[in-house]
Amino acid sequence: MPSVCLARTPLTDPIPREPEPLVSDAVVRLVEKRAAVIDDEVARLRFVRRSIAAHEAAARRRVSFLRRSFAAHRASRRRLYLSLRIVFMALLLAVALVPEAPRTVPRRTVPSNPVRRIAADIAAPGVWLVERQATIEIYSNGLRVDNEFLTSTRARAYRAFDRLGWRASAVKTQPAGIVFHTTESRMAPFEPSQNSRLQRNGRNLLAYIAQHRLYHFVIDRFGRIFRVVAETDYANHAGQSIWADEGNIYWGLNQSFLGVAFEAQTETQTGDSNDIATRAQIDAARVLAEMLRSKYHVAAMNCVTHAQVSVNPQTMRLGYHTDWAANFPFREVGLGNGYETPIAALTLFGFDYDSAFLQANGRRVWQGLVTAEEQLVREAAAHGTTVELYRRTLRQRFRAWKASEATASTEDAAADRP
Ligand SMILES: [Zn+2]
User: Fold this and answer.
1) Could you name the CATH architecture of 122-414?
2) Where does the pLDDT of residue 369 fall: very low under 50, low under 70, confident under 90, or very high at 90 and above?
């Protein structure tokens, strides 16, 4: 399959440019500094957007005034130095052409990729398979995996896209990351009197998940880990989804990422991950993540929740699925703070989110959303355009890229399950 080359496709639509950047880095920094005192993150984002827009409008007025003044001054000079016009024209042309050269490259360097800072990665310990006993596998870090419900789909095969040129890689077969889910299934109170109901719910759920090949792994409420879809195969867990690490963009994570589901409901959250998952589930997720990261060399920044990657390309909004929109115990699972990673769909493709999405986050805005918004403001300024125009251009590029042949191979497995 041919790769997508930005140099030869409509994706090269230039970012709309003004002759000079309207808002300087210094102004952006000043706005950010002023915004820092606003506690509420949504209000802070709105303040930054409003302020930058006001600065841009003022800058436009200044540019217009300067242009008019310069035109008048030039007319006066023309009258005074008519006799020297030809000589001056030649000189002016020579001078005018000099600044054109650097205009073919970005006038300012786009701020360095903030994911690099976050991804100063947390190393996974080396974990190995110790022994198999019937359907049970035992690993060196205490992990036990039960294969009683093991099924298969088709062998994993996907292409990643390089972050700079969006060109497709060769076909990959190793998972690049992990998406954590909640099953959103029926929950019984977690207490001894409910023991048989808890067990029955768990087994019914596993049978359903195996039938539909929904996740690679399920962690039941007692912290038992079941492998449901073979690690070599894709599973129907992520639907339409996007993520990016330092080097690659991943589209359709059913193929490229492993799915790990907690038997749990995000809706029952009261602000504490222990109210969503049991202690045993969190401990199980830690040893499972250690094994998978060790086996496939998965970076911590590629261990994410479904809410962080799920998108709706029709509405260009985040959060088609919102499981683990908040309170995923990243630190306890040994993954730092995954909510800090800038959301790739925002910074690369101009996706947005609405109040319903923020509500699913338990009214907390992830640091990753704030960082992504700030990055958009800086990049729009660096390209000499407004945030809204910049976002629109990103969306056009995304649609062209998504419609291209290179992403087609991931589409069949990206269809959202009901
Ligand atoms: Zn999910």
Assistant:
1) 3-Layer(aba) Sandwich (3.40)
2) confident
Say what the pLDDT of residue 52 is.
Answer: 67
Determine the distance separating the centroid of ligand 1 and the alpha carbon of 180, expressed in angstroms.
7
Q: Which residues pair with 138 in a beta bridge?
A: 131, 144
Distance 349 CA to ligand 1 centre (A): 22
What's the mean pLDDT in 385-391? 94
| Beta-carbon neighbours within 5 Å of ion ligand 1 | 181, 306, 321, 323
Cβ atoms within 10 Å, residue 262: 28
Distance 259 CA to ligand 1 centre (A): 8
Task: Report the DSSP pairing between strands 225-227 and 217-219.
Answer: antiparallel
Average pLDDT over residues 172-187: 95
Q: Which tokens is 371 given?
A: 């960082």
> Comparing C-alpha atoms, which of 177, 331, 328, 179 is closest to residue 247?
177
Q: What angle do CA 249, 210, 172 make, to 5 degrees?
A: 25
- DSSP label at residue 235: -
Question: DSSP label at 35?
Answer: H
The yes-or-no verdict on residue 39 having pLDDT over 50 is yes
Q: Find, among 206, 187, 209, the residue nearest to 198 by Cα.
A: 187
Reference 348, options 163, 119, 112; nearest CA is 163
Q: What confidence score (pLDDT) does residue 415 get? A: 43
pTM: 0.72
What is the rounded average pLDDT of the residues 249-278? 83
Q: How many CA atoms lie within 13 A of 123 on its CB side?
A: 3
Q: What is the pLDDT of residue 3?
A: 34
- Residue 395: is its pLDDT beyond 70? yes
Mean pLDDT in residue range 268-283 = 75
Domain spans of the chain?
A: 22-103, 122-414
Nearest alpha carbon to residue 203 among 77, 268, 195, 247: 195
Nearest of 274, 269, 273, 238 to residue 256 by alpha carbon = 238
Closest CA to 52 of 345, 380, 366, 372: 380
Q: Is 299 left (phi over 0), alpha (psi -120 to 50) or beta?
A: beta
Q: How far is the CA of 352 from the centre of ligand 1 (A)?
A: 19
